[in-house]
TrEMBL record:
InterPro entries named in the record: TMEM115/Pdh1/Rbl19 (IPR013861), UBA (IPR015940), UBA-like_sf (IPR009060)
A Pfam family assignment: DUF1751
Species: Entamoeba invadens IP1
Recorded coiled-coil stretches: none
Subcellular location: Membrane
UniProt name for this protein: UBA domain-containing protein
Keyword tags: Membrane, Transmembrane, Transmembrane helix
Length: 290
C-alpha cells in the first residue's frame, strides 16, 4: 500500500469506518485511566494519545489530518537515511516521554498529549514499526493511519447510525473480492462518464495548446463546421431575395457567441478583424489565453 493518502481507494476508506466504530466504542468504554495504566506497563505513550484524540474537536481533527498527510508524503520522498534519523530522534524522545507520562497529572496529561507537536511523535514512533491484530484482521501501520483518524472524525457524530450503515456496507464490499472488483469497476465507469460530461461543456476557447499541429487541425475542423452551419442557417431562415444582405453588428456578435464565446470576447475579436466573422473566430482560437 502506498504511504500517505494519495491513491487510497474510496472503498477502503469506507471499510475502515467499521473498524473505527469498534475502536471508538472500545476506547470510550474503558476510558482514560485504563490507557494510563496500560502505558505504565507497556511503555507505549501512543495509547494515551489515542484516548485524547478520541475527544478531539473538529479543528484539531482537520489540523491533524493535514499534519499526518504531510509526514506521509515526507516519508515517501525521504525514504532514506535522512528519514531514518528522524525516527531515531523521535524514538529517544518518546522513550523519555513514556517514562514521565504516568507521573503527570490528568489535566496536564490531557494538555500535553493533545498538543499538535505530540502528533508528530505519535506518527513517527508508532506507524513505521507497529503491527497489530484486530480479531481476524491483520492491520499494518499504513492502515492504522486511516482508521485512527476516521475514528476521530466519527467521534463527533457517534450518535448517528448513518456512519454505521456506511461502515457495514463498506465491510461487505471490501471483504468479498468479486463484490470489490465489481464495485471498483462500476465506480470507475461512472467517474469516467462524469469527466466526459464535464469535458463536453468545454468551448473551443479552452483548448490546451500543447500540440500546435493538432490544435490547428481542430481549429480548421471547427471553422468548417461553423461555416457550414451558418450557410445552412441562412438558407433555412432567410428569404432568397435577402441572402446577399450583410448581417449587422449585433448579428455578428451573436454568431460568435453561438460558437461558445462570451459577448466581450466576440466584441473584442470583431473590433480587431474589421467585423470579419471567420477572422474573428480564428483570432479567438489563436489567442486562447485572452
Amino acid at each position: 500500500m502506498k504511504a500517505g493518502f494519495e491513491g487510497a481507494p474510496v472503498s477502503f476508506l469506507l471499510f475502515v469506518t467499521t473498524l473505527s466504530i469498534s475502536f471508538l466504542s472500545y476506547f470510550n468504554f474503558f476510558g482514560k485511566d485504563f490507557f494510563i495504566s496500560t502505558t505504565s506497563s507497556r511503555y507505549r505513550p501512543w495509547t494515551v494519545l489515542t484516548t485524547q484524540l478520541c475527544q478531539a474537536s473538529i479543528s484539531q481533527t482537520v489540523y491533524s489530518l493535514l499534519l499526518i498527510y504531510f509526514f506521509r508524503v515526507l516519508e515517501r520522498r525521504w525514504s532514506s537515511q535522512v528519514f531514518f534519523n528522524y525516527h531515531l530522534v523521535v524514538f529517544i524522545t518518546t522513550t523519555l516521554f513514556s517514562f514521565l507520562v504516568v507521573r503527570l497529572s490528568g489535566s496536564f496529561l490531557s494538555l500535553v498529549s493533545s498538543h499538535t507537536v505530540f502528533l508528530i511523535y505519535f506518527y513517527l514512533e508508532v506507524l513505521p514499526i507497529m503491527k497489530i491484530n484486530f480479531t481476524v484482521f491483520k492491520v499494518s501501520d499504513n492502515v492504522f493511519v486511516y482508521f485512527s483518524y476516521v475514528m476521530i472524525v466519527l467521534n463527533n457524530f457517534k450518535s448517528s447510525p448513518f456512519y454505521i450503515v456506511i461502515g457495514l456496507i463498506a465491510f461487505f464490499i471490501t471483504s468479498f473480492k468479486p463484490i470489490n472488483t465489481l464495485f471498483v469497476s462500476f465506480s470507475s465507469s461512472k467517474l469516467q462518464k462524469l469527466f466526459q460530461c464535464v469535458n463536453s461543456f468545454q468551448t473551443p476557447f479552452t483548448f490546451v495548446q500543447t500540440d500546435k499541429t493538432q490544435r490547428r487541425q481542430l481549429e480548421g475542423d471547427f471553422l468548417d463546421e461553423m461555416r457550414l452551419a451558418q450557410q445552412n442557417g441562412r438558407q433555412q431562415t432567410t428569404p432568397p431575395q435577402q441572402q446577399n444582405i450583410q448581417p449587422n453588428r449585433e448579428q455578428l456578435i451573436q454568431q460568435v457567441m453561438d460558437c461558445g464565446f462570451s459577448r466581450e470576447q466576440a466584441t473584442f475579436a470583431l473590433n480587431n478583424t474589421n467585423n470579419d466573422i471567420e477572422a474573428a473566430l480564428a483570432f479567438l482560437l489563436d489567442n486562447a489565453n485572452y
